[in-house]
């Protein structure tokens, strides 16, 4: 039995919309197109792509909510179609937005009911509800009807619902959507802890800093197909996007300026000179490699006095946008 | 029943907190009006007598009793359908359908839980309507208790069975009103709630027999108006329950694809 979530040549094509009159429309392009990837236990794996890339469709197939058109997906060797019920015991899904919980029940009642649906033993459930309410900061609001909750509180309850069955694999589809920054930060800490405790997490998020912070490995999909994969650092490096080095001098230094221009010409870097808000000379260098070391050495050797150096490496967001632009 | 009883409790909690008074008033008013108008027509137009045709087709001269049992059964059927068939589309509208479908719980016990809660609520509502009928002078003969119990149980199975494929249609097309009202009109016309189905043209009469409520209603009237025993109404009980189970089986087969269609469409119904 292969551990983890294993997806092989997974494809999902939705039928064309029905028309009452006229010809049936041609079948649209696959929402997921031959996707193969692995989500291991005990790590957070990212699934990135622009809107319409097929992330949510993939997650819904893994959650057994949709059936693949072809290909396969297994959870610890269990097929998501054939063994759907057993797969559901091992996974859970938390989607962004405040829905997925009952408005006319209290937070505690919601968790009790979902615990029953997952057949969590009574003694365990009582303890687990308390732990989860504490985890998402809703202990004081446990007896309040959800319809009186704020959007963030509902989303937090939805997160608790997603953990009620202690899933071995957690599918997170934009989990921090609409959450206040402190709550989102707490959720990231929870996700990191879950992964450290052995839970396999698949995360999609538009907040790429979140993905960069949490994910050991990231898959990038476009129009349903895998276009890149690797660690966030590998993906960023693979796009050869420029590092930006911004160096501010204490005083004008013509020799240093000439030396920097020579360095830029030699390395093939973009360079421009201006002044900062205090009127001090500033040089900016952009190159796929980090030239901060060479730049500072060059300036010092040419007699320049450095006030400040700032290096901005390319981010995962830059990398994803670059891939999308191709 | 690991899912049925919690679902029943959940629905009780929600119903107590937000009882749908408009549904209650609408349904009870329909039953009350049906019995009230029948009372007026029977005394003001019929002069307290039924025609020979009604006597032959309906098998009774107790027109008010006939209509009262029919109106109570119609009310029972519509209320049960409204609860059970609309359970999943209500989940879809409130955004909880996917969290339901994610869980390993089976759909049948979930719907049974909804049905159990609906049954208790509906029985109380039907009692209100029957109290009105008694208040205006309708006198129902004492039924055979066991036969009545069996008839109510068979009618419950029938209504539950019909509700499940209806639920699948509702979540599949994302619409409830046209679907439910089509069934209600069909039931009211074909099943013999207020007039004997024998008065209908043959094709419609046979169409009515395909709905389990027609035989269920015959069993209910046999138990209440004619004081028949279980043995006497057994063929209708079996037909009613059998058809109900057949509708249920068909509905459960349809539910899976319908749920996936609902998930694919996403959003509110």
Structural notes for this entry:
The complex is a heterodimer of chains A (about 325) and B (about 270). Chain A has eleven helices and 14 strands. By secondary structure, chain A is an alpha/beta fold. In chain A, helix 3 crosses helix 4 and helix 8 crosses helix 11. Chain B has one domain. Chains A and B meet through helix 2, strand 6 and helix 3 of A and helix 1, helix 6 and helix 12 of B.
Short description:
The complex is a heterodimer of chains A (326) and B (269). With 326 residues, chain A is an alpha/beta fold.
- Topology as H/E string of chain B? HHHHHHHHHHHH
Number of domains of chain B: 1
Number of discrete helical segments of chain B: 12
Structural class of chain A: alpha/beta
Which two chains touch over the largest interface? Answer: A-B, 35 and 24 residues
CATH class of the largest domain in chain A: Alpha Beta
State the total count of DSSP E strands of chain A: 14
Query: Which radius of gyration of chain B do the C-alpha atoms yield?
Result: 19 Å
* Low-confidence runs of chain B: none
Count of alpha and pi helical runs of chain A:
11
Q: What would CATH call the homologous superfamily of the largest domain in chain A?
A: P-loop containing nucleotide triphosphate hydrolases
Mean pLDDT reading of chain A: 90
Give the tally of structural domains of chain A: 2
Q: Which structural class best describes the helix and strand composition of chain B? A: mainly alpha
Q: Rg of chain A to the nearest angstrom?
A: 25 Å
Q: Please state the average pLDDT score of chain B.
A: 90
Multimer state? heterodimer
**Percentage of residues in helical conformation of chain A:** 25-40%
Q: How are the strands of the biggest sheet of chain A laid out side by side?
A: 6-7-8-3-9-10
């Amino acid at each position: 039995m292969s551990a983890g979530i294993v997806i092989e040549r997974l494809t999902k094509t939705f039928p064309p919309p029905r028309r009452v009159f006229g010809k049936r429309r041609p079948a649209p392009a696959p929402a997921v197109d031959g996707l193969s990837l692995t989500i291991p236990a005990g790590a957070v794996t990212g699934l990135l792509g622009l809107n319409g890339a097929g992330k949510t469709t993939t997650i819904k197939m893994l959650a057994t909510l949709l059936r693949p058109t072809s290909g396969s997906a297994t959870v610890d060797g269990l097929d998501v179609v054939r063994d759907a019920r057993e797969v559901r015991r091992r996974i859970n899904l938390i989607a962004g937005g405040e829905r997925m919980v009952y408005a006319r029940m209290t937070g505690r009642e919601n968790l009790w009911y979902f615990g029953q649906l997952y057949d969590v033993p009574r003694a365990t459930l009582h303890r687990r509800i308390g732990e989860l309410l504490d985890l998402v900061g809703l202990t004081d609001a446990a007896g309040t009807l959800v319809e009186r909750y704020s959007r963030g509180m509902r989303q937090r309850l939805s997160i608790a619902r997603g953990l009620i069955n202690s899933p071995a694999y957690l599918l997170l589809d934009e989990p921090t959507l609409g959450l206040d920054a402190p709550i989102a930060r707490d959720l990231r800490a929870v996700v990191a802890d879950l992964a450290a405790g052995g839970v396999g997490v698949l995360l999609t998020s538009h907040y790429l800093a979140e993905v960069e912070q949490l994910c050991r490995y990231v898959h990038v999909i476009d129009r349903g197909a895998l276009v890149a994969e690797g660690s966030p650092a590998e993906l960023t490096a693979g796009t050869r996007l420029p590092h930006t080095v911004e160096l501010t001098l204490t005083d004008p230094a013509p020799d240093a300026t000439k030396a920097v221009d020579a360095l830029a010409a030699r390395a093939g870097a973009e360079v421009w000179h201006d002044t900062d808000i205090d009127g001090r000379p500033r040089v900016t260098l952009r190159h796929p490699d980090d030239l901060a070391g060479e730049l500072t050495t060059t300036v010092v050797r040419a007699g320049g006095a450095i006030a400040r150096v700032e290096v901005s490496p390319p981010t995962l967001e830059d990398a994803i946008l670059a891939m999308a632009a191709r | 029943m690991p899912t049925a009883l919690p679902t029943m409790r959940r629905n009780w909690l929600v119903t107590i907190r937000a009882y749908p008074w408009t549904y209650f008033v609408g349904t009870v008013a329909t039953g009350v009006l049906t019995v009230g108008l029948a009372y007026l027509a029977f005394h003001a137009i019929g002069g307290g007598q039924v025609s020979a045709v009604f006597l032959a087709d309906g098998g009774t001269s107790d027109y008010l009793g006939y209509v009262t049992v029919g109106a109570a059964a119609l009310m029972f059927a519509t209320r049960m359908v409204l609860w059970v068939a609309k359970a999943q589309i209500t989940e879809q509208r409130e955004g909880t359908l996917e969290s339901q479908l994610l869980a390993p719980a089976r759909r049948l016990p979930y719907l049974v839980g909804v049905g159990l809660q609906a049954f208790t609520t509906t029985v109380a509502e039907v009692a209100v309507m029957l109290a009105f009928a008694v208040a205006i002078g309708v006198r129902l003969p004492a039924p055979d208790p066991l036969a009545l119990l069996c008839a109510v149980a068979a009618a419950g199975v029938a209504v539950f069975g019909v509700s499940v494929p209806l639920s699948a249609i509702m979540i599949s097309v994302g619409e409830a009103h046209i679907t439910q009202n089509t069934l209600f009109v069909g039931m009211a016309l074909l099943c013999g709630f207020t007039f004997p189905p024998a008065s209908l043209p043959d094709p419609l009469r046979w169409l009515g027999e395909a709905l389990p409520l027609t035989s269920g209603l015959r069993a209910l009237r046999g138990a209440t108006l004619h004081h028949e025993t279980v043995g006497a109404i057994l063929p209708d009980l079996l037909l009613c329950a059998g058809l109900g189970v057949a509708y249920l089986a068909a509905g459960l087969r349809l539910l899976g694809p319908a749920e996936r269609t609902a998930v694919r469409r996403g959003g509110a119904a």
